[in-house]
Specification:
Order of helices and strands: EEEHEEHHEHEHHEHEHEHEHHHHH
Strand content: 5-15%
Number of strands: 11
Number of helices: 14
Distance between the termini: 44 Å
Largest sheet: 9 strands, parallel
Shape: globular
Radius of gyration: 20 Å
Length: 334
């Protein structure tokens, strides 16, 4: 699979852009464990133009994480064009247009998935951004439609392709669904099967295991799979899926100790990068969501303690206690 001059190989796995999740530390870990492409947190076109410090910080990228994309969102042509030109100066490998974010503060203002109610404007934005940044591939991410009465993706995909985007990511839900229910990949498959579609189609939604990723490739024919919420506290998911897709049954799996070490490394990276307080904020939601802790009795109380921790020492102590508890359980089950 290729986007522009970037060759991602066969059946690549992408990390989805997620606000307050895909910071540079987390992206590097996902890259280490097999993500073929990572994205920054999505950023507001208006904030980029105003040079908001916190927004510009989200656009900092490192050569170690390439290829990396920066995703922008906005509700009018001029701001998206201006923002895209500013983003291009950072030299991302891809500029992605967010036409799919369903949250009220974005979609409710006519940006993100809100543009599914104004397709002419969406297409104008795509067309003009492509023209504005000829040296950087422009891609887009969207949903099946606004609601179940307006499942427009099969037509919309062709329209976006005609605007010059070089790849399209489709999340298998409508805006009205938000993140509820199950993702429907049927229409994603129909887009991929359309003989008029020649750009890569990237599928997104509810991929949590190697089996689900394999089905996405085999049954629906997508060129790549993008993984979002299942990466929380689990950057090694890319290795687990990659090893399975590559038919590497003898590949060494990460042990419990390895995984807790990775989470502690993520904490250290973030603290060193942005200080103790903010570094903990960026990390503890990953720790609280990590599936490796599900076997701990009454984990709810431990999770609350993780989310309330305010020092590296206290958070590390909680992780070490979790390590001890889980290893004791492993021993008793042998």
């Amino acid at each position: 699979m290729r986007i522009g001059n970037i060759d991602f190989g066969t059946r690549p796995l992408f990390l989805a852009p997620m606000e307050d999740v895909t910071d540079i530390g987390f992206r590097k870990l996902c890259k280490r464990y097999g993500a073929a492409m990572v994205y920054t947190e999505f950023v507001s076109a208006d904030a980029i133009i105003r040079s908001v410090k916190s927004t510009l910080a989200k656009m900092v990228i490192d050569d170690d994480e390439r290829p990396v994309g920066i995703q922008i969102y906005g509700r009018d042509v001029d701001s998206m064009v201006q923002a895209a030109r500013m983003v291009e100066e950072v030299h991302p490998d891809v500029i992605d247009l967010n036409f799919g974010c369903p949250v009220k503060k974005v979609a409710g203002k006519g940006a993100g998935a809100g543009l599914l109610r104004n397709i002419p404007l969406m297409l104008d934005i795509a067309r003009e951004v492509v023209r504005a940044v000829p040296n950087t591939p422009v891609t887009a991410k969207t949903r099946l439609g606004w609601d179940k009465e307006n499942l427009i993706i099969t037509t919309l995909a062709e329209q976006l392709q005609d605007c010059g985007i070089q790849a399209l990511t489709i999340h298998g839900r409508t805006r009205s669904q938000m993140y509820t229910g199950q993702a429907d990949w049927t229409l994603i498959g129909e887009v991929k099967e359309n003989p008029r579609i020649h750009i890569p189609i990237i599928g997104n939604g509810d991929i949590t295991s190697a089996q689900e990723a394999r089905e996405a490739f085999d049954r629906y024919g997508v060129d790549a799979v993008m993984i979002g919420r299942a990466t929380f506290g689990r950057p090694w998911i890319f290795k687990e899926i990659r090893d399975s897709l590559d038919g590497a049954p003898d590949a060494k799996s990460l042990s419990l100790d390895d995984k807790i070490d990775v989470l502690e490394e993520q904490l250290r990276i973030n603290v060193e990068r942005i200080g103790e307080y903010r570094g903990i904020l960026h990390t503890r939601r990953h720790l609280a969501a990590s599936p490796i802790f599900k076997g701990i009795p009454d984990f709810r109380q431990t999770r609350i303690a993780m989310l309330r921790a305010e020092t590296v020492e206290s958070l590390t102590d909680i992780l070490e206690q979790c390590r001890l508890t889980l290893k004791q359980q492993q021993t008793s089950n042998q």
